[in-house]
Amino acid sequence: MHRHEWYQKIYESFPAIIGEARRFGETLSLGKLNSQFGLYSGASSCPARLPNYVIDAIVEANKIEVLPVRNVEDELRAVAKDIFGDAYDAAVVNTCEAALRVVIETLMAPPFMRKGDAYRGRMIFPYGEDIEWGAAYGRAFPPKYKNAAIDRSVSAGELGMEAKCLPNLDTIFVKFANARYEVHGVRQNLVPLLTDINVDATTERLRVACERHVEFLSGFHTVGYDTPGYGYGEMAENGAPRLMQEIGALARDYDLPFLIDAASCVPGIGVSPKEAGADVMVWSMDKAGRAPAAGLIVGTEETMLSVRKALGLAGQRFGHVSSHGKAVHSATDPGRDTVVALTAYLKVVRDEPDRIRRPVDQYHDIVVEAFKDLKPVRFRDKLIFTKSYHMGGTELNYSNTWDGDGFGIPLFTLEDLYADTNPILLATQAMGIEPATIYAGNMLLNPGLGLLNDDGELIPERAELAARALVKSVEIVCTHAGLGD
Q: Running DSSP on this structure, what letter comes out for residue 408?
């Protein structure tokens, strides 16, 4: 059977998969919990509830009759400097997507307020997953990659990813060395398999791309997860991904900015801009972080000076070192209470980091233990479990189940995630649990969604049920895919 025929067979088995999963959920009495918890809180479409220490900060701030936004922005700035160092600065926007646009447009897109035709800028982007976020701000080059930057996330066309493109900016896609790029899924698309990439050879590919486009280079940009499933599994001595550091070195060689998109990560307990060699990093704070929807931007003071001016935060309107005024990107203002809440969360990261790390440790152990019983048995030693404080959870990568001659555990695309054509997710939902985020052989798991109590401590019984349900979902799909022992 050809691979595309096999995925069609799996698709036709969806009703049977969902029915079997629903019956299993009934044996665990999951229906009584009425979908009160899930496996991953890294999606803004279904964020976790806020902990008490964040909610209380919002309530207290609203007891103050007059509290200018500038005051709370300055407090957040100070807390960020406590965490990252005084050589770094911070700003907040309403979403991480807004943070990407602000940074890319401010630092990498060519200027347009000068005489004559605007020149082109080109940013270098390693071709992994999640390319449709930052990479979509430039036109894809070479053109063979335009599908990657346009027809993604089931939102193609003029009003979708294509419309994000900034004037006169290109994205140069560079493949990881020793990666495999294969077509998988029900909604078929290219899936990068990155667990075995070669850092030195990838760095050389990036350098060749820089030399080829040197007259147009304006920046470097990458997805910032510190896990093998995203190509960043090889660590340097300081704990940061070595490839990120190599990209940072290239950026310094060419005197260009390096942006890391750490959207589904936690600032302060994982990889920092300094460790990775980045000029600026951005986070989506309602995902692995437990704050309201906000995009946190942290970078060197030199870099952030331009970003803060673009946001109207650089003090021109008042006799202070900061302000809260109008500028080109003031439309991304997150609002005072969001900044108050985010500051409260960052204070916990600064003062009580173990309060954030401890549930990650416990949840990771529960997930690893649950998958010891996975069937088919032959896949167990092919699984890669990576605990990441940076991502606030665990990456379970199963792409190595495809190392042999036969088919492995089915690989689904990001398009399958959004189109509800990933049966592992559908099976988990049928059991009564909000599913993990699963695509490209990666299962992203963290304890935020109903697995923590009001104080942020793990609820072990729920975590164990969630992990057991995930294992069973994989087993049901494998059985219907003809992969039984």
A: -
